[in-house]
DNA sequence: TGTATTTAGTTGCAACTAACAACAAATTAA
DNA sequence: TTAATTTGTTGTTAGTTGCAACTAAATACA
């Protein structure tokens, strides 16, 4: 194997391991997020989508989150119960509801977001702008790759045990 | 705010969003892994640790995986049931078991690993070695940061709903 | 040596997540 | 107007994980 290919293979392996670890440890950071604030990870994502989009139908939220509408409905339930989101009946279509983040919800979202961004900032402060850009690109590419495969997914439910 | 700081803040935000997305979509890739192969994500991690370390006590595995020993025990249960791992009684300490990956387990692990590495390789093939290295470093740094916080975690169980 | 303590692992239980299916209500199509 | 579709909720089920209680073995110590 030529020198270059060997290097590429090594880098790919390193990247695989690095990403693996990252994703694994993120679970635990996320558990922190849960207990330091007032929302679970899924609830936080929902809050994020709603805050970013202004107002969403349940169906839309479910699609964005790649969750079943029933699950989304219950996630919204808990956010409503905590006062972060309100369900407003749609005037034009009375089946539908407009999910909207309350001021309290916006405040929480912004607080969490600011905290997490501050941490990232600390992390990359010492890097050159070029390196930062490149890293972000790699992470985005990883996501794109994963996303694509998610679409090709067999989609079925898991096997036994 | 000076130009540089603004740039840093923007990069931090971009990184935050990129990582967020990556982690989120990884869940779904992982679900794929489950249905395409024969193991859950946690089972796969366990297999990985065991394959890398040769043989482990349950306790050690639990620590590596940051899981409770009861959970680890059950993860091992399922791997044993599927024939990927064996529990061998320790001769010196009859309380203990040596968890060992079977040939079948090694084969599965290597197959999964090879697949995933091949994907990473494809992803970074067009990047310069320097950029690759930098990206890997950033991802590792992210992990280190998260890991550190995991240690400071409050560790308690969640609130209601 | 014999009792107490510690350690290794398993099992019971409860909290949580999320999907599928069945449903009610409203809307749209025929 | 009736049938089909769409929107969202609720019932049920499967699965993951941690804590606590337990058994059995090993070690400490008096």
From TrEMBL, chains A, B:
GO molecular function terms noted in the UniProt entry: DNA binding
Keyword line: DNA-binding
Domain HTH marR-type: 12-148
SUPFAM superfamilies assigned: Winged helix' DNA-binding domain (SSF46785)
InterPro entries named among the record's database cross-references: HTH_MarR-typ, MarR/SlyA-like, WH-like_DNA-bd_sf, WH_DNA-bd_sf
Taxonomic superkingdom: Bacteria
Record PANTHER family: TRANSCRIPTIONAL REGULATOR, MARR FAMILY, TRANSCRIPTIONAL REGULATORY PROTEIN-RELATED
Protein name: DNA-binding MarR family transcriptional regulator
Lineage, broadest ranks: Bacteria, Pseudomonadati, Pseudomonadota, Gammaproteobacteria, Chromatiales
């Amino acid at each position: 194997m030529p020198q270059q290919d060997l290097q590429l293979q090594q880098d790919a392996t390193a990247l695989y391991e690095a990403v693996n670890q990252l994703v694994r440890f993120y679970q635990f950071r996320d558990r922190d997020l849960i207990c330091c604030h007032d929302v679970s990870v899924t609830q936080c994502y929902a809050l994020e989508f709603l805050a970013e989009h202004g107002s969403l139908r349940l169906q839309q939220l479910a699609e964005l989150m790649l969750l079943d509408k029933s699950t989304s409905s219950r996630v919204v339930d808990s956010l409503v119960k905590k006062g972060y989101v309100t369900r407003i009946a749609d005037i034009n279509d009375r089946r539908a509801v407009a999910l909207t983040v309350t001021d309290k919800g916006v405040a929480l979202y912004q607080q969490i977001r600011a905290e997490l961004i501050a941490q990232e900032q600390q992390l990359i402060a010492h890097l050159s702008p070029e390196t930062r850009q490149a890293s972000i690109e790699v992470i985005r590419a990883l996501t794109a790759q994963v996303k694509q495969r998610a679409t090709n997914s067999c989609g079925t439910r898991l096997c036994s045990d």
